[in-house]
Q: What sequence folds into this?
């Protein structure tokens, strides 16, 4: 049991920091009456995307292929297949933002390729999170001292510190480009990295000396 007065405060901080990662998706598509033709074209277009991403190293931090789809198009009146469709999507993570716009344009200029993004974010282990937590603790201590000073007291010890969670609030933008073929002129693209909001909060309880109540 604690003897003496206690002050309970909440320390909180909001910050905007520069993003560290940019993600976008590249989706290659194909359509034909023959399934084999769709598979061949899809493999060819996916390979062309891979070549461009290989050339973009080391700006590309990682890439992940997912959502491979091949499906038939049928008539409403029955199950007769009139065409085959295929798509394969790749998620690309970039750390060098100076190369991001050019890379997205080159990918979007490929035949039957759609590019969507970017989505800005921080790394999971970003120093911004640690700095926000430290700032929240400092804010809690400053608040406790202010309340103690108003009572003619001073903070003597920390009793409890609880983390209310650190919540990154990513801001994003989306630009989508779909190429109709190599002859299409690529659009001009200017990307401004969007700041990321970071919020940290703690609950703290401190003991203080006896107030001077005049």
A:
């Amino acid at each position: 049991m604690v003897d003496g007065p206690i002050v309970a405060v909440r320390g909180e901080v909001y910050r905007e920091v520069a993003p560290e990662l940019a993600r976008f998706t590249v989706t290659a598509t194909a359509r034909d009456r023959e399934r084999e033709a769709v598979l061949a074209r899809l493999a060819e277009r996916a390979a062309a995307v891979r070549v461009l991403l290989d050339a973009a190293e080391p700006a590309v931090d990682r890439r992940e292929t997912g959502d491979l789809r091949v499906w038939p198009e049928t008539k409403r009146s029955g199950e007769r297949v009139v065409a085959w469709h295929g798509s394969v999507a790749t998620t690309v993570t970039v750390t060098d933002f100076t190369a991001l716009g050019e890379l997205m344009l080159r990918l979007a200029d490929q035949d039957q390729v759609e590019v969507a993004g970017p989505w800005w974010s921080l790394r999971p282990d970003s120093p911004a999170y640690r700095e926000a937590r430290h700032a929240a603790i400092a804010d809690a201590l400053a608040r406790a001292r202010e309340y103690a000073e108003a009572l003619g007291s001073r903070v003597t010890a920390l009793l409890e510190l609880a983390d209310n969670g650190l919540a990154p609030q990513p801001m994003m933008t989306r630009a989508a480009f779909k190429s109709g073929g190599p002859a299409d002129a690529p659009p001009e693209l200017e990307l401004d990295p969007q700041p990321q909001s970071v919020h940290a909060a703690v609950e703290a309880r401190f003991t203080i000396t006896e107030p001077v109540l005049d």
